[in-house]
Amino acid sequence: MKNLVKHELKPIYNKESKILILGTMPSVKSREVGFYYAHPKNRFWPLLELIFEESIENKEEFLLKHHIALWDVLKTCSIKGSSDASIKNAKPNNLANLLKESNIKAIFTTGHTAYQYYLKFFKDKINLPVFCMPSTSPANCKIKMSELIEKYLIIKEYL
């Protein structure tokens, strides 16, 4: 398959994780760096800093401290660059172990594409509330940070 990308980042979670945030697939920059939301213009980490009113020194420790699990819906797909719109031949990650080994109460997708793939692969398999959140990607610049904060504050209700 042309442009086949395999998800190489490990999920971040522990037994105390209460919410799961799912993206679609790591961006080119995230794959290069080996960690989630690594593009300098992605607003994911600054958004969490604002919601929790603290700076993030160690991203993984921050997530676990706040009972947040982080992963992506897709295990492999054909993709051009980082464009979710170009995804084809998508195969899902196996969320079963993560859900068994944690205390997840709700799932939040970062963007409409992640939400659509979540529904396609997991709608009838996972019985948890799922919320489609706006993407924090620089490609979604039409939504202001203040709007992202307003939308993402719901995650605190499940923590």
Q: What descriptors fit this protein?
A:
159 residues; alpha/beta; Uracil-DNA Glycosylase, subunit E; four-stranded parallel beta sheet; three-stranded antiparallel beta sheet; globular
Summarize the structure.
By secondary structure, the protein is α/β, with parallel strands linked by helices. It has six helices and seven strands.
Task: Present the secondary structure layout.
Blueprint (H helix, E strand, L loop, with lengths): L3 E3 L12 E5 L4 H6 L10 H9 L6 H7 L2 E5 L1 E5 L9 E5 L3 H5 L5 E5 L1 H11 L7 E4 L11 H8 L7
Helix pairs in contact: 2-6
Task: Describe the protein's architecture and organization.
The structure is a single chain. By secondary structure, the protein is an alpha/beta fold. It has one domain: Uracil-DNA Glycosylase, subunit E. 29% of the residues lie in helices and 20% in strands. It has helices spanning 28-33, 44-52, 59-65, 96-100, 112-122, 145-152, and strands at residues 4-6, 19-23, 68-72, 74-78, 88-92, 106-110, 130-133. A four-stranded parallel beta sheet has the order 3-2-6-7. A three-stranded antiparallel beta sheet has the order 1-4-5, with helices on one face. Helix 2 (44-52) crosses helix 6 (145-152).
The top level CATH class name: Alpha Beta
- Secondary-structure-derived class: alpha/beta
Total domains: 1
CA(first)-CA(last) distance: 40 Å
Number of strands: 7
**Proportion in helices:** 25-40%
Q: What integer is the average pLDDT?
A: 94
Q: Which range does the strand content fall in?
A: 15-25%
CATH architecture assignment: 3-Layer(aba) Sandwich
List SSEs in N-to-C order.
Answer: EEHHHEEEHEHEH
Bulk shape: globular
In quaternary terms, these chains amount to single chain
Low-confidence sequence ranges = none
Major sheet description: 4 strands, parallel
